[in-house]
Amino acid sequence: MNGRAQLLVALLSLAACASEPLTMSLDSADSTYAVEVLGEGFVRWESRRVPRETMVLELRQRVRELDAEARKSTRVEIVLAAEPGDSVLADNGWIIDQCGIMGIGQCKVR
Predict the structure, then answer these.
(1) Which secondary structure element, helix H or strand E, spans residue 105, and what is its range?
(2) Which of 13, 17, 10 is nearest to 2 (CA)?
(3) How far is it, in rounded angstroms, from Cα 96 to Cα 66?
(4) pTM here?
(5) Rounded (10°) CA dihedral 10, 15, 17, 23
(6) What is the spatial distance between Cα 79 and Cα 39, in angstroms, rounded to a whole number?
(7) Is 68 in contact with 30 (CB distance < 8 Å)?
(8) Could you give phi then psi for residue 34, rounded to 5 degrees?
(9) Which helix (H) or strand (E) holds 20?
(10) Is residue 75 pLDDT above 70, yes or no?
């Protein structure tokens, strides 16, 4: 059995052992920022269509003023474009990575 097949068997075995469905909840957020990922490196941020890097720089300036606890209680709500393609998914992943680097405690994708 190759590595992929072994991984698949292991995952299916673990899924079969689950007795309760996984539920996730987010803690309350002190501040929330919303961004819509449009793809091709662009987002809708505060009613403007801007490059994703611009959004991250503006968010970084705001978050930099917060202490560590306030950063942990900050949430970024990410809305994916109506038909998310590879570009939208890649941009989404990049934004989530940047939020982690900034110390933002929560990212919610919907």
Answers:
(1) none
(2) 10
(3) 19
(4) 0.73
(5) 140
(6) 11
(7) no
(8) -110, 140
(9) none
(10) yes
**Nearest alpha-carbon partner for 58 in 90, 23, 33, 21:** 33
Rounded CA-CA distance 89/9 in Å is 27
User: Could you give the CA distance from residue 46 to residue 14 in angstroms, rounded to a whole number?
Assistant: 42
Res. 2: pLDDT tops 70 = no
Q: Which two tokens stand for residue 60?
A: 């970084």
Percentage with pLDDT > 70 across the chain: 75
Distance of alpha carbon 35 from alpha carbon 14, whole angstroms: 35
The closest alpha carbon to 37, from 97, 105, 85, belongs to 85
Contacts for 57-63: CB closer than 8 Å, 24+ residues apart: 59/33, 59/99, 59/102, 60/98, 60/102, 62/33, 63/102, 63/103, 63/104
Task: Output the DSSP codes for 27-91.
Answer: PP-SEEEEEEEEETTEEEETTEEEEHHHHHHHHHHHHHTS-HHHHHTEEEEEEE-SS--HHHHHH
